[in-house]
Amino acid sequence: MTPGAITFYWGVRGPIEGLNHHTIFLPDRSEEAYTDLARGRLPETPAFYLSIPSKSDPTLAPPGNSTVFALVPVPTLSAMGADTDWPKIVARTRQRVLDRLAREGVRLDPSRFAVEDAFSPREWQDRFGAYDGSAFGAAHTLFRLGPFRAPNRDPHIRGLYYVGASTVPGTGLPLVVLGGAMTAVRLRDDWSEGREPTGPGSGEDAREGGASP
Ligand SMILES: Cc1cc2nc3c(=O)[nH]c(=O)nc-3n(C[C@H](O)[C@H](O)[C@H](O)COP(=O)(O)OP(=O)(O)OC[C@H]3O[C@@H](n4cnc5c(N)ncnc54)[C@H](O)[C@@H]3O)c2cc1C
Fold it and tell me: What separation in Å is there between the alpha carbon of 137 and the centre of ligand 1?
């Protein structure tokens, strides 16, 4: 699976100087940080993405104020273990993000936060059904790509189809939308007049993965 994410949502009084809409902050020691993430450990200095949507569209905040979103990749729920104290990790991660911003010369004092919310992988699972708290579903590793990725037509149960990040072609909004279109075309073709839906053992499913609609 892809990692989980801690996401922060801040409504900030006043403008934020020194950043534009999108910024990615890389860890101090990248190799160590990404290895930690892959092995189910919290990186000491995490990578994170910071977005200030109100920079591009000022109507997203009251006049003169700012909206800020931060996304910090963290291990999934199972990788971290059942007894993980997520509220504590969220608090620590928040501090690390704010410390890093301060180090980069971005002034974002929490006393300016008019609104604040945060989701850990647990909230992503409980509120949105994200499996194991993973933010992006099945990873795009070699054996989860193309013909190896879960097909969007079930190979065993006739008439059962899948859409979404963990099926073909993959994760992220553009691929998920494309996958939805592929599934719709398969459904239409399978159920068009005079044609039986594909059944188990038909042999067609092996070709599903990378096939275009
Ligand atoms: C924090 C974050 C940031 C992201 N940023 C980007 C980005 O910048 N660009 C990009 O391309 N992709 C991004 N992604 C990835 C992208 O959002 C996903 O790949 C995509 O939304 C997956 O689509 P989906 O239809 O599989 O699942 P979802 O969009 O998660 O839709 C599943 C829906 O099903 C609902 N649901 C779940 N279980 C049930 C149930 N039992 N009953 C009823 N409803 C249920 C959920 O509430 C949800 O509305 C991001 C993901 C996250 C988590």
Answer: 9
